Amino acid sequence: MIEIHPSMTLHGPTSNSFISQRLRLHYADWGNSEAPPLLLLHGGRDHCRSWDWAAEQLRDDWHVIAPDLRGHGDSQWSPDGNYEMASFVYDLAQLIHQLNLAPVTIVAHSMGGNIAIRYTGLYPENVRKLVAIEGLGPSPTAQAERDAVGIRKRFRQWIEDKRNASGRLPKRYQTLDAALDRMKAENTYLTDEQARHLTIHGASRNEDGTWSWKFDNYLNVWAAFDMPRDDIHVIWNAITCPVLMLYGADSWASNPEKDGRIAEFNTARVVEYENAGHWLHHDQFDRFMTELKDFL
Description:
By secondary structure, this protein is α/β, with parallel strands linked by helices. Helix content is 37%, strand content 19%. It has 11 helices and 10 strands. The protein has helices at 52-58, 85-98, 111-122, 140-149, 151-166, 176-186, 192-202, 229-237, 256-259, 280-283, 285-295, and strands at residues 14-20, 23-29, 37-41, 63-67, 104-109, 127-133, 203-205, 211-213, 243-248, 268-273. The strands form 2 sheets. An 8-stranded mixed beta sheet has the order 1-2-4-3-5-6-9-10, covered by helices on one side. A two-stranded antiparallel sheet has the order 7-8. A hairpin with a 2-residue loop joins strand 1 (14-20) and strand 2 (23-29). Helix 2 crosses helix 3, helix 3 packs across helix 8 (229-237) and helix 6 (176-186) crosses helix 7 (192-202).
């Protein structure tokens, strides 16, 4: 049975919040405010405490801050259930602006990487270095398949998906152990300790004693529209800081060196991790930390 207590090897951060577009958004602050700022951005349906192991190793040399994205962790959910990329980028811009973090170093995973890459292209002067773990979103092949569906059908599907989401109740687990089993099934590379920690910080207890994940179910409905890809490429091309892109060999994500997207970046290099999936910073933690510290 899971015991709810912090890992004995981790000394936790303080919890803080800031306001963005009328939402109260949470972030974990690991202290050491006199050190250079380092932002850790989690991915979709994740939470800021998934960075705890990395933050523990970085906190002596950096002022580590890990936000919960809107709709995730201990941040508020978007009232209208819309989670467009522009809103996430604005939230990141607000955090950096309100805390006066620029120039900042950013390490980001998946959707967080997508957000960080766009911010860095918009404000290249504000970012010293960027590490993006599988942060470029759908591959060119996936984008082409989506385009082939046609705008009318895609738009109608989005309306249908939103309508279905409105009637979908959050999954309830009778015990925290049941939620832990789901976490372990989602990523078989996780150790028991990792899965336990991610579950404890990623779930909250309902009034009837059951457990549910903290993220908003509407996050499962992707926004109907994004900016044109030519515009996204303009933003990518504007990045001037060193960029390290990391990919898991066993992940669903498409490696930009193999699909051609790396050509849109002037200062990026790609490293692929064997025996690692989409959460390679968990799957190959020691290698990830060594590579990360060398790059930083």
